[in-house]
Design goal:
Length: 281
């Protein structure tokens, strides 16, 4: 439990939970429902980084847990909010944060499913995962993203330049956040579902780059083309979609059979260029 430590209330640093005083709040290993025995995932070390597990005030009885990776220097850095897939916070998401931190970003991965009290990455049955995910409503998740960006702005190590990227379930969160959260300067959505979002492109307040697979069985190319057309019709010139013809859903997830190294590398480079072009540097 987080307690107020000062009469005037707790400043943001009071909500940091370090490894010296607590065990990890997050699963160690890769999501058991999706990991491939043949996978050779990228592993990024912590050298030169500060790794923290924090609790972000979000108005709920229990605050929002988040994994944070950032450069260990004393400077201020732009931030990327990293939104997980349906499997929650596990080693893949943590490694994405460390990769971004090595490039000079503060990377924050909130645990959007924490209210359920279920250790999602440890569940092996996909059917048991979905009811937990569905409990996290769009309004609740969007509120948690806003709480995260507010927390970021209060940190001495962060610039007021915030981007967001997300994978699968998290890709849809990216599109919505760019519509409803004025703190977000740019977003990159990796194969996020587009249902219900195409009709809302006029609400975009920040440019979004969508990275999608041409072989994605859940997000057909026709949906991707519809989003492109909607962006053009709404004159959202800073937003676009890239379709990788041979890629499946989850092509960036290097712990899964769907991983496509060439397309993942290209998408990563495009993501960084998109953030840079839109002031998230």
């Amino acid at each position: 439990m987080v307690t107020l430590t000062r009469p005037e209330g707790s400043p943001p640093e009071d909500f940091h939970v370090t490894r010296r005083v607590a065990t990890s709040m997050f699963f160690v290993g890769y999501a058991l429902a999706a990991v491939s025995a043949e996978a050779r995932p990228v592993v990024t070390d912590e050298a030169g980084l500060t790794i923290e597990e924090v609790l972000i005030p979000n108005g709920a009885p229990k605050p929002l847990p988040a994994y944070v990776a950032r450069p260990a220097d004393k400077g201020r850095h732009a931030t990327i909010i990293v939104v997980n897939e349906i499997f929650g916070i596990h080693d893949y998401i943590k490694d994405v944060c460390r990769r971004l931190a090595k490039l000079g970003y503060v990377a924050v991965a909130p645990d959007f499913f924490y209210r359920a009290g279920v250790n999602l990455p440890a569940i092996t049955d996909f059917k048991a995962i979905m009811p937990v995910v569905q409990q996290a409503t769009p309004d609740q998740v969007d509120g948690d993203v806003k709480a995260t960006s507010a927390w970021v702005k209060a940190q001495r190590f962060a610039k007021p330049a915030i981007g967001i990227t997300g994978f699968c379930w998290g890709g849809a969160v990216v599109w919505r956040s760019a519509m409803v959260n004025p703190d977000i300067k740019a977003g990159v959505a990796w194969y996020g579902r587009l249902g219900g979002l195409v009709e809302r492109v006029g609400e975009l307040k920040a440019p979004v780059l969508g990275l999608y697979g041409g072989q994605d069985q859940g997000i057909p190319v026709t949906d991707q083309d519809a989003m492109r057309a909607a962006l053009k019709a709404a004159n959202k010139t800073g937003s676009d979609l890239v379709t990788y013809a041979d890629a499946q859903h989850g092509f960036h997830a290097d712990y899964r059979p769907s991983y496509n190294e060439a397309d993942a590398r290209d998408g990563w480079a495009r993501m960084l260029a998109h953030f840079k072009a839109n002031g998230v540097i």
